[in-house]
Write a structure and sequence with these properties.
This protein is α/β, with parallel strands linked by helices. It folds into two domains: 157 residues, no CATH class; 152 residues, Rossmann fold, CATH 3.40.50. 42% of the residues lie in helices and 8% in strands. Strand 1, helix 4 and strand 2 form a beta-alpha-beta unit. It binds 2-acetamido-2-deoxy-beta-D-glucopyranose (NAG) (3 copies). One 2-acetamido-2-deoxy-beta-D-glucopyranose binds next to loops. The site of one 2-acetamido-2-deoxy-beta-D-glucopyranose has 4 residues, from loops.
Length: 385
C-alpha cells in the first residue's frame, strides 16, 4: 500500500486511455482542434428524470458502500528470488513512452522486462508529452528515481543518463532522421523472441538501442515466470511517487473525504464538487474519470446523437489524430453499440450510477482533463447524484 491514496488518485487520471498515438515524434499542434465539437444533446431525459426521483433504501446503500469480498488474490512477487544480475551488460536500452501516465507506468514495467530479457542496461525512460494531457513532467518529476534503481539493483542495471560516448542518442537525434540504433518497428505485444531477434543484434553492433514507440510493445502471454515477477516487482515495489506528489495525493484525498466549506470555495478546475454538501455519508465519495474527451469520442467512431455536425467534427479528429486509422470505423453504429464499444456519455454514467443505487446524497467528484460537453453533461450529473 505504498502508493496509497496518491496512487489511486493519479492512477485515475490515466485509467481509461486505451489510446495508441502512432505519430510519436510529430508536433503536438493538433490540440487546438479540440475546441470545435459542440455540446451534444441529452438523449434519455425521461429515464434520467425517473432515476433521479428514486431514493434508494439504506440496505441498498450499505451494500454498495461495503468493500468487496476478498477475491483471494495473492502478491505476484516472490521476494526470495535469488539475485540474477547478469555479469556483463550487453548495452543500453532507451525507451520513449507515449500515452497517458497509466500507459507510461505499464510501459516502464515492460521496459525493465525487456532490458532484463536482453541483459542490457536500462536508461531511465523518457516520457513523451501527450497531446491531451499536455504534461511535460519527466520520469524523475513523477517517480522516485533513486528508489526505482535501488529496488531493482539485483535484477537489472539502470542508469539515469547515458555515458558520454552515447550522449548523441537523444530524442532530437531520432526525430530528425532515420537512425540505425532506433527500433521503430516493434509490433504491439511483441514476443521475447522478437526482442532477441531484432534488438539484440542492434545492441551487439552499436551498444545501444532506442525503442520508440514502446508503449504496449511487450506481450504478456507466455512470458517466462521470472520476467512476469519482475514486471510485478517494478509495478508494486519499484515505482513510487516522489514525496511531494504523495503528500499532495494524501491531502487531496483528505479533502475529498472531509470537504469543508473552505475547500469547496478553492476547488480548482480539476476536481469539482458537484453535489450538495448535505451528503450524509461523511468520508464516502465517488470519483469519476469520464474520459469522455473529444479524442476518445472520435476514436470510438460512435454516434452520440449530434447529427451531421457531430459526424463531421469527429471525422475530422479521426483524420487529424489517428490519420484515419480507427479500427471501429469498419462497424455501423448499431454494431458498435451492441458490442459495447462505445464510451458511456456523462448522461449514461449518471443513469448507471442511479441504477446502482447512488442517489442525490452521494458525494461525486469529477476527475478530468475536460469533459466534452462540460456545461450540459455536468448539469446532468448534478441532477443525478
Ligand atoms: C433528492 O431527491 C429527493 C427525491 O427525489 C428530493 O426530495 C430531494 O429534494 C433531493 N435533494 C436534493 C438536494 O436535490
Ligand atoms: C543473459 O544472461 C543469461 C545469464 O546471465 C544468459 O543465460 C542469457 O542467454 C543471456 N541472454 C542474452 C540475450 O544475452
Ligand atoms: C446545452 O448547452 C447548450 C449550449 O451551451 C445550451 O444552449 C442548451 O440549452 C443546453 N441544454 C441543456 C439541456 O442544458
Amino acid at each position: 500500500m505504498r502508493h496509497q491514496s496518491g496512487g489511486a488518485l493519479f492512477g485515475l487520471l490515466g485509467l481509461l486511455l486505451p489510446v495508441f498515438f502512432p505519430s510519436l515524434f510529430s508536433p503536438l499542434s493538433h490540440a487546438s482542434a479540440f475546441s470545435e465539437w459542440n455540446a451534444i444533446k441529452p438523449r434519455h431525459t425521461h429515464l434520467l428524470k425517473s432515476a433521479v426521483e428514486r431514493q434508494s433504501s439504506d440496505s441498498v446503500q450499505n451494500e454498495f458502500w461495503n468493500p468487496l469480498s476478498d477475491p483471494g488474490w495473492r502478491p505476484c512477487i516472490q521476494t526470495t528470488n535469488a539475485p540474477s544480475l547478469p555479469e556483463k551488460s550487453r548495452g543500453y536500452v532507451q525507451v520513449f513512452l507515449d500515452g497517458g501516465l497509466n500507459q507510461q507506468r505499464m510501459a516502464v514495467c515492460d521496459a525493465v522486462a525487456v532490458a532484463k530479457i536482453l541483459n542490457a542496461t536500462l536508461v531511465i525512460p523518457y516520457l513523451e508529452v501527450n497531446p491531451v494531457w499536455q504534461d511535460s513532467s519527466s520520469f524523475g518529476d513523477i517517480f522516485d528515481v533513486e528508489h526505482f534503481i535501488d529496488v531493482l539493483k539485483d535484477d537489472i542495471r539502470i542508469v539515469r543518463d547515458l555515458p558520454d560516448e552515447f550522449s548523441w542518442s537523444t530524442r532530437e537525434y531520432y526525430a530528425t532522421a532515420i537512425r540505425p540504433t532506433r527500433i521503430k518497428t516493434a509490433p504491439v505485444r511483441a514476443t521475447v523472441n522478437w526482442y532477441l531477434e531484432n534488438v539484440s543484434p542492434v545492441l551487439q553492433s552499436y551498444g545501444i538501442a532506442a525503442i520508440a514507440p514502446f508503449s504496449h510493445r511487450l506481450t504478456y502471454d507466455n512470458l517466462p515466470m521470472d520476467i512476469q515477477r519482475l514486471r510485478c516487482k517494478v509495478n508494486f515495489e519499484g515505482l513510487i511517487f516522489v514525496p511531494h506528489i504523495r503528500a499532495l495525493g494524501d491531502s487531496l484525498v483528505n479533502r475529498l473525504r472531509y470537504p469543508s466549506d473552505d475547500s469547496r470555495a478553492t476547488a480548482g478546475n480539476y476536481l469539482r464538487e458537484v453535489t450538495d454538501s448535505t451528503a450524509k455519508k461523511v468520508g464516502k465519495f465517488v470519483v469519476l474519470h469520464l474520459r469522455f474527451d473529444k479524442d476518445m469520442a472520435a476514436h470510438s467512431a460512435c454516434d452520440f446523437g449530434g447529427g451531421k455536425a457531430e459526424k463531421l467534427a469527429l471525422a475530422k479528429y479521426r483524420q487529424v489524430i489517428w490519420q484515419g486509422r480507427v479500427l471501429n470505423s469498419q462497424f455501423t453504429d448499431e454494431e458498435l453499440r451492441s458490442q459495447g464499444r462505445c464510451p458511456l456519455t456523462p448522461e449514461e454514467i449518471g443513469l448507471l450510477l442511479a441504477a446502482l443505487g447512488f442517489d442525490n446524497t452521494t458525494r461525486l467528484y469529477l476527475a478530468s482533463h475536460k469533459v466534452v460537453t462540460e456545461e450540459n453533461q455536468s448539469n446532468i450529473l448534478q441532477e443525478t447524484a
